[in-house]
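re: ur question from earlier - yeah i can do the single chain one, its not a big deal. heres the input i used so u can compare w yours
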Amino acid sequence: MKIDITKFENIIFDFDGVFTDNSVYVNSNGEEFVKCDRSDGLGLNLFRAHLKSINWEMELAIVSTEVNGVVSARAKKIGLDCHHGIGNKLSFLSGNQAGQNGNRLRLPLDLSKTIYLGNDLNDLPVMRLAGLSFAPSDAHPLIKAVATHVSHELGGHGFVRSVLELLMDLPELSERDLNELISNS
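and the output i got, formated as tokens:
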């Protein structure tokens, strides 16, 4: 699947079930913890270097229903704008609902020029309208049915990286271009 990413202006990521395996760990104080795959962070760095190499800019952001410090902390660590506490993602991305935190995302988005990664029913309205949409292999069946592409990867197990590598057409890069991406990421 060869994708011309210059037809797109944004990539929007859900968080739970996309960057995580959709599990939550809770300690006796009620503090929540999640497990994320570090390779997704490296994939984002490589993708940013790729965008720079082709002289293309895209807005990258997490849009999550959950209001959780874990989401914003991980977003900050991997350099993504973060909007959480979003009850209706379609309404938010259409510019009709305020969210918390993130401020770089220019709303409303043209969803036909948006790539969306999601896994559950609250992602369904956006995935139906996104120009390109991706689901992990363990996504809800209705999400997999509307996704443009269903990955072989599980959410939280390199799913984000696999999508970004597909968008970069990584296997087709020359060794020189790949080495340059690695050194610039």
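The CA atoms of residues 120 and 128 lie 13 Å apart. not sure if urs matches, ping me
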